[in-house]
Design a protein that fits this description.
Chain lengths: 146, 140
Amino acid sequence: MINRVIALVAGMLFGMGMVISQMVDPAKVIGFLNITGNWDPSLALVMGGALMVFAPAYRFLIKPRNKAISGEALKVPTNKQIDAPLVFGAALFGIGWGAAGICPGPALTALVSGQKEIIFFIAAMALGQVVVLIWQRARLARLQQA
Amino acid sequence: MENFTPWSALAGGMLLGLSAVILLLFRGRIAGISGILSGLFTPHRGDTSWRVLFLVGMMLGALALIPLGFSIPDMPSSSWLIYVVAGLLVGIGTKLGNGCTSGHGICGMGRFSVRSVVATLVFMAVAIAVVLIRQMLGWV
């Protein structure tokens, strides 16, 4: 039960962060990405504020542990390879982000407003993830056969 | 720079960092939103409820701020096609590249992961280029 409350509370803080920082406003995001126009550097401070809290906490509270407080494993990615899917995927994400000014966090936060634009965006995003998942599975199956 | 809102940006960002610390320290999970969502499509026992609760929490957190005078802005009334195409690209890209602004930009960069630094530089640079092109075409 307490573990579930923790997941919910962490989510609430994240949603509040999205609204207070105005990441949830596509116009604000585009203002940050539009460096040759009327540039608004605010979102650099969103990332800066997040890193100011996360980086030292990770280094001193989390990294020394071998398990989470719940006893669950610390699921920190171990892959170190800079490969084509990483770079190509990040580039595709960048195109979508620049086109609409929406990334996954703001989209799922703003879903609560029920706007149809957000519903379209999230449905398409979920579809895109599933398509890649199916492709990755098919590729793995082919590799295992070979 | 008259739209610059440094204090709300910093405060909101710190809440995002705090959320990521709590989720990783207590539950061992990375607060990367694209990954929290995509994990729902490959369900494993004991791996679903925290994802749903986190996502529901995000919406509740936003709702809780509305009485304090915050609001969720209206999305620009572009064509629905823009939202579908952008959503598809974001979905495909975050699944292939294993993360988005939160997973790579906060949790990954905060661990000094080279993969996350590369991903963040790439998606930032590409998004800036896309907005530059939109600006030149008069679509901003």
